[in-house]
């Protein structure tokens, strides 16, 4: 990888959004310093200074200038480090389609996943139904975008691969918690095969979290949100 002296990533190991940024840097062979934030305890001064608006990870610091929000950072990486592979397609229509599906993942699919993880039982069932419906939509998107190749981006990882793939470990956690397959050979065969290709990719392997460790972290998140919800109910 390249010189890491002027590139830094503020993140936390369990964040799918941080994972996107790190994979993008790996694809471009850009070296970087990774700074782990413990968001369950306290946020560092560097994080608060670098992202004073949202106060969250990921943050890419390049030449002392912070860039925030994962998909914006991925755009930035693709534009600054122009060596192959390109993360976004060169064709305007294909590029627009990639942005559409990445936005769908963040606006619809991830919120449903999050609700399955931390919501009440009643809302959890509705959120799980949304996730399963979303997986079918992403299966169809994969068929159109991949052109029959291994990835959403074709022969190599692209923008939508990073958007969806960064959630893959959390999808496995949800499957473990609910005993329900989100990606299955029966309903989403293309995505099921893609998931294996994604997780074994050289740019991904070193940052793909251990699912059992992530499940333990998910249990802590559940407990934290349940405690907060109970406190709110009591105060009302």
Please, could you describe this protein's structure?
This is glutathione transferase. Belongs to the GST superfamily. Tau family. Keywords: Detoxification, Transferase. It is found in: Cytoplasm, Cytosol. Pfam families: GST_C, GST_N. There is one protein chain. The protein is of the alpha+beta class and 236 residues long. The protein has two domains: 74 residues, Glutaredoxin; 120 residues, Glutathione S-transferase Yfyf (Class Pi), Chain A, domain 2, CATH 1.20.1050.10. Helices cover 58% and strands 7% of the residues. The protein is built from nine helices and four strands; from the N terminus they run E-H-E-H-E-E-H-H-H-H-H-H-H. The protein has a four-stranded mixed β-sheet with strand order 2-1-3-4, with helices on one face. Helix 1 links the parallel strand 1 and strand 2. Helix 1 runs parallel beside helix 3, helix 4 runs antiparallel to helix 5 and helix 7 crosses helix 9. It starts with 6 loop residues before the first strand and ends with a helix.
């Amino acid at each position: 990888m390249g010189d890491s002296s002027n590139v830094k990533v503020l993140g936390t190991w369990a964040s799918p959004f941080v994972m996107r940024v790190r994979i993008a840097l790996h694809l471009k062979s850009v070296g970087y310093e990774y700074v782990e934030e413990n968001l369950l305890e306290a946020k560092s001064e560097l994080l608060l200074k670098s992202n004073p608006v949202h106060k969250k990870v990921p943050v890419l610091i390049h030449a002392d200038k912070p860039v925030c929000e994962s998909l914006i950072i991925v755009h930035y990486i693709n534009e600054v480090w122009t060596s192959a592979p390109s993360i976004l397609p060169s064709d305007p229509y294909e590029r627009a389609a990639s942005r559409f599906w990445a936005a769908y993942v963040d606006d619809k699919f991830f919120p449903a996943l999050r609700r399955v993880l931390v919501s009440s039982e009643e809302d959890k069932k509705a959120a799980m139904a949304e996730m399963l419906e979303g997986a079918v939509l992403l299966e169809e998107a994969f068929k159109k975008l991949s052109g029959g190749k291994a990835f959403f981006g074709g022969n190599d990882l692209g923008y939508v691969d990073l958007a969806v793939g960064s959630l893959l470990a959390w999808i496995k956690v949800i499957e473990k918690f609910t005993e329900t397959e989100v990606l299955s050979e029966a309903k989403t065969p293309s995505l099921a095969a893609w998931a294996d290709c994604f997780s074994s990719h050289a740019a991904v392997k070193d940052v793909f979290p251990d699912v059992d460790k992530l499940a333990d972290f998910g249990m802590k998140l559940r407990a934290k949100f349940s405690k907060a919800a109970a406190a709110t109910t009591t105060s009302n």
